[in-house]
Write a structure and sequence with these properties.
Mean pLDDT: 83
CATH class of the largest domain: Alpha Beta
CATH architecture of the largest domain: Roll
Distance between the termini: 31 Å
Helix content: 10-25%
Largest sheet: 10 strands, antiparallel
Structural class: mainly beta
Oligomer: single chain
Number of helices: 5
Order of helices and strands: EEHHEEEEEHHEEEEEEEEEEEEEEEEH
Strand content: 35-45%
Shape: globular
Length: 383
């Protein structure tokens, strides 16, 4: 635990004085905010009131090692609690009479655009991760291209990708990557693919091709975006029973706790435990399709039978429950009651851009397209 304390005595013109104590702390592994306040000798009732106020603007369950606290006490009473979760995420709780109020502190930053370029040898995901940059870039690529291609397959040596990314710059340093604004994928064989993110009047940000056709389909390509496939659909030697059995879905290898997204909107038909599948969720979709997600570590709050879920919603987290030999997600798809290979399905596209928005869309995407291919835009090189 890193602790820094400073005690100051302030004198007024009336010779009255108040003892001001400032404590700076950094959360250790496994430490909670309430634990840090307790270590700082904050009285339990006051600590709970501070936590309740902070929780109005910051989910205290998201506290992580390295987050910083600054506690200001006057005559033993906590006047201010500053909480810093990152360069752009700062919060303050201040005493207002006998209660505490919290607010997010405004932090000045610049929005800039940077370009990434990838030589794809095995998969687009691995190419993105090989740059050593923020993993969110790879996740954003999964969001961009995941409707059209499996990011862990289909790559050919010589394929190339370019990505235009919004960056948030604080004091001259990139502190966070924002949205992927546009992306292109140029395969060795076949036509290049260029897609653009555009915000619709309702606030939704969707992907479109340059002609306004939707780059999104009614079903996601898979429920996890980037995870490598460890077993495909069809006959295989079963890893536990050591005999040939039909594998009715696709397995994705990933660490326990990876978010699992429902691939299309629908109605939950089952959410619970099965002996072989462990924690499992099944969802019925339009068109007589049903998807199931097996071996989960836990289900998201509210995911239960007869609940409505919406495409891309996190419904659970991957795990190692049921009959498994390693952590993974088993994903299967049924159509009209029969198992089908999820990787071979071609679902229809979502609606194209409304005609009345096309002029604005064209103006915005023309700028993105120029930046994608303009050598003057800085390229973020691997590090």
């Amino acid at each position: 635990m890193r602790v820094f304390a400073l005690t100051i005595v302030l004198f007024s013109s009336a010779a009255a004085h108040a003892a001001v104590e400032v404590l700076n702390r950094r959360l250790d592994d496994g430490q909670t905010i309430i634990g840090a306040l307790t270590d700082a000798r904050v009285e339990p009732q006051s600590a709970m009131r501070l936590i309740d106020a902070l929780d109005d603007v910051f989910d205290v369950r998201q506290a992580k090692p390295g987050h910083q606290l600054r506690i200001v006490r006057v005559d033993g009473f906590v006047e201010n609690l500053d909480y810093r979760a990152g360069p752009l995420d700062e919060y303050q709780v201040r005493r207002d009479g006998w209660r505490y109020v919290a607010a997010r502190r405004a932090v000045a930053f610049e929005r800039k655009v940077a370009r990434f370029e990838f030589d794809v040898e095995t998969s687009l995901y691995e190419a993105a991760m090989s740059t050593g940059r923020d993993p969110m870039i790879a996740m954003a690529l999964a969001d961009a291209f995941g409707w059209e291609m499996d990011l862990t397959r289909n790559a050919k040596l010589g394929d190339r990708a370019k990505v235009l990314v919004e960056t948030l710059v604080h004091h001259g340093r990139v502190v966070r990557y924002g949205d992927v604004l546009a992306a292109s994928y140029a395969p060795v064989r076949g036509a290049p693919m260029e897609i653009f993110r555009y915000q619709l009047p309702g606030g939704e940000r969707a992907w479109f091709f340059s002609d306004g056709t939707s780059a999104q389909r009614t079903f996601l390509k898979n429920p996890v975006g980037w995870a490598p496939i460890s077993s495909t659909f069809g006959w295989r030697m079963h890893p536990i029973y050591n005999e040939m059995r039909f594998h009715d879905g696709v397995d994705y290898g990933m660490p326990v706790g990876t978010p699992v997204h429902v691939v299309a909107s629908g109605l939950v038909t089952f959410a619970g435990w099965t002996p072989g599948g462990g924690n499992m969720v099944c969802v019925m979709h339009e068109g007589d399709y049903e998807t199931c997600y097996l071996h989960l570590s836990k289900l998201a709050q509210g995911v239960q039978a007869d609940a409505l879920v919406y495409r891309k919603e996190v419904i659970a987290w991957s795990g190692n429950t049921g009959a498994t030999t390693r952590p993974h997600l088993h994903f299967n798809l049924k159509h009209n009651g029969f198992y089908v290979d999820p990787l071979r399905q071609k679902f229809p596209r979502t609606e194209s851009l409304p005609p009345e928005l096309y002029a604005d869309f064209s103006k915005e995407t023309a700028a993105y397209l120029a930046q994608l291919h303009d050598d003057a835009v800085p390229v973020m090189a691997p590090r």
